[in-house]
Specification:
6-stranded mixed β-sheet; disordered N terminus; 54% helix; alpha/beta; 241 residues; elongated; 6 strands
Length: 241
Amino acid sequence: MFKRLTLCMGAALISHAISAQSLTEKQETDLEQIETMLRDNPQLIGNMRQGLENFLDEQRAQQEKYTEYKDWLFDTSVHPTLGDVDAQHSIVIFTDYNCPYCKRLEPSLERIIEEYPSIKVINVIVPLRQREVKGIATNSTEFGLNVWANAADDYYDVHTLLMDKSGMHTADSLTAIAERTQTAQWLKSMDASKQVVQKNLEAFQALGFRGTPTIMIGEQWIPGFIQYGQIEQIAKQEFGL
């Protein structure tokens, strides 16, 4: 089951502790401190119990949705992938070519696949910030997907330029990237890419994600931008590197 790396008023901490097969020394200490706080403030017990039950229900529902969409999320024939597509380990990232935090995260993703060749990064692209671009019959998401599906050898260059663009993409920026990478034939609307986008959005919403980037590493998901050191630490933990 995925473990959400957010502060959930202590409920997440308790649920992780009580569900573990064995507790670490720190978890034992945390549990003792929480028990002391609840005994000193018994009025909190009812709300804490309800919070735990809601949290566990949410986790169960999210696990069911993950099982439903897992094969889709890891399908490198559909999703543009950085690194060796046959690499043993996968980091799945919900990303958006118009998201400033996704752009900030990109150097860390480049670094992780360079330093750990056994890891690949699967880009599940969701156009949350821009569905239409004035003056052109497509958008950055569909352009990237078109290139991956039809000219995969050119994808890395296209992807890099799409991420390097500061701010929102325009018809001029997309045209310039297509011309520079000689991929202008894929700067158009294609039904196959539209279908991928639709299913990506369905998976994103079904899993309860709220923004980009959202990073899935092993059994953990991390909402929002994080530094390289955190990515590396979680990857080592989850993949046994």
